[in-house]
Design goal:
The protein has 385 residues and is of the alpha+beta class. The protein folds into three domains: 109 residues, Butyryl-Coa Dehydrogenase, subunit A, domain 1, CATH 1.10.540.10; 112 residues, Beta Barrel (Butyryl-CoA Dehydrogenase, subunit A, domain 2), CATH 2.40.110.10; 148 residues, Butyryl-CoA Dehydrogenase, subunit A, domain 3 (Up-down Bundle). Helices cover 54% and strands 15% of the residues. Strands 2-3-7-6 form a four-stranded antiparallel sheet, with helices on one face. Strands 1-4-5 form a three-stranded mixed sheet. β8 and β9 form a beta hairpin. α4 runs antiparallel to α5. The structure holds flavin-adenine dinucleotide. The site of flavin-adenine dinucleotide (FAD) has 22 residues, from β1, β3, α10 and α11. Flavin-adenine dinucleotide binds next to β1, β3, α10 and α11.
């Protein structure tokens, strides 16, 4: 199976994560998932181990993991319970945006607190009428003296219930064209005027809360405007989503692997017509395809992570990795369900969770339809005659 050669230090970090997943996540994932309960204990242990600082540079108090190792870490966590990776992923995109575009004051104030998990949360970008079309947001930020006053409603905000800090996208100019030039990003901590309205009931991705947030005369200081410049938000979101696509691709790999590993075990245990089902050719074909899909997904994800690490432009590779790996997770989850027969459809086996979690990856960090458009444009540019 595809393995990248990690140096001793990185391998040790990965081993800590593997151990953590087996000891802390695997035994409770089913119970918490079905109770739709937030994993408070797991979060506290992740704080102690420094997981909230995985990709935050060491100079700012983080672990400073490179993106390839990080993709393996996310694969590992997702393999055991995707909801836990969701607690880290949007938090680390928030940190990535501050690191990439924040002022020196913002970096030194926020990044060490993000790394310990004292401040943690995610991204408050989407609204009821602005998902793919993020330029359509209507949340407004109006400068009054030294403070911005923000009004609007955000939808689908992961980590909003138990997180405390978010990158908030708002329009500082409602009339400018093109529309994206009116978007600015703020670092928003919970406080007066920040209301978590409700938890959205979802098909999967249980335990982790995804919420609607109302901002009503919510005030932030000028110092929270990322990069201290209005109108840069759209570019900053796109920069953050470079890491977001690697995150989501790695989650696709994690789901593809979970489905594959559970299935290959089951095909050796379950017997029909006097032999293990893995000896029936129809099942063998599925296992071959699932394993191949997993390998290809991991290689594409590592390639995209490496490009990001090198600081190279990686729209094409990240788009391909996100598209392929998440479709691999989706397809392997479906095949795992078929292989497990009736048992796969019950809550006794984890495959029903993979089957509910996988579709979200087709939607998050840019839907796969949008990825195809980005990939096609990049390819046409690359092969221009
Ligand atoms: C569980 C969950 C957690 C989430 N967490 C967060 C979060 O933490 N923070 C946050 O800001 N957002 C979050 N989101 C929102 C998520 O990013 C959006 O759902 C996603 O961007 C899609 O937007 P939409 O749902 O409005 O779909 P739409 O944009 O309405 O898309 C509907 C369909 O139209 C297609 N489509 C749209 N435009 C085009 C086009 N130009 N060309 C071709 N096809 C197109 C799409 O591909 C899709 O198939 C979350 C969503 C979910 C479900």
């Amino acid at each position: 199976m595809a393995t990248v050669l990690l140096n001793e230090e990185k391998q040790q970090i990965l081993n800590v994560v593997k151990d953590f997943c087996k000891k802390e996540i695997a035994p409770v994932a089913m119970e918490l998932e079905h109770a739709d309960e937030y994993p408070h204990d797991i979060v506290e242990k992740m704080k102690e181990l420094g997981f909230f600082g995985f990709t935050i540079p060491e100079e700012h108090g983080g672990i400073g993991l490179d993106y390839v190792t990080y993709s393996l870490v996310i694969e590992e966590i997702t393999r055991y319970w995707m909801s836990v990776s969701g607690i880290l992923n949007s938090h680390l995109i928030m940190a990535h945006i501050v690191e990439k575009y924040g002022t020196e004051e913002q970096k030194s104030h926020y990044l060490p607190r993000f790394a310990t998990g004292e401040l943690r949360g995610g991204l408050a970008l989407s609204e009821a009428d602005a998902g793919t079309d993020i330029q359509n947001i209507s949340t407004k930020a109006v400068l009054q003296g030294e403070r911005y006053v923000i009004n609007g409603t955000k939808m689908w905000i992961t980590n909003a219930r138990y997180g405390n800090t978010f990158i908030l996208a708002a329009k500082t100019d409602l009339h400018v064209t093109p529309r994206y030039k009116g978007i600015s990003l703020f670092i928003a901590e919970k406080g007066d005027g920040f209301f978590v309205q409700k938890d959205i009931d979802k098909l999967g991705y249980k335990g982790i809360k995804t919420c609607e947030i109302l901002f009503e005369d919510y005030e932030v200081t000028k110092g929270t405007l990322i990069g201290a410049k209005e109108g840069e938000g759209f570019k900053q979101v796109l920069g953050g989503l470079e890491l977001g696509r690697v995150n989501v691709a790695a989650r696709g790999v994690g789901l593809a692997r979970a489905s594959f590993e559970d299935s290959i075990k089951y095909t050796q245990e379950r017997r029909t017509f006097g032999k293990p089902i893995g000896e029936h050719q129809a099942i063998q074909l599925k296992i071959a395809e699932m394993g191949t899909r997993l390998e290809a997904a991991r290689l594409l994800t590592q390639n995209a992570a490496q490009k990001l690490q090198n600081g190279e432009r990686s729209d094409l590779e990240a788009g391909m990795a996100k598209l392929f790996a998440t479709e691999a997770g989706f397809k392997n989850a479906e095949e795992a369900m078929r292989i497990h027969g009736g048992y796969g459809y019950t809550k006794e086996f984890a495959v029903e969770r993979y089957y509910r979690d996988a579709p979200l990856m087709l939607i998050g960090e840019g839907t796969n339809e949008l990825q195809k458009i980005i990939i096609s444009k990049s390819l046409t540019e690359k092969y221009k005659i």
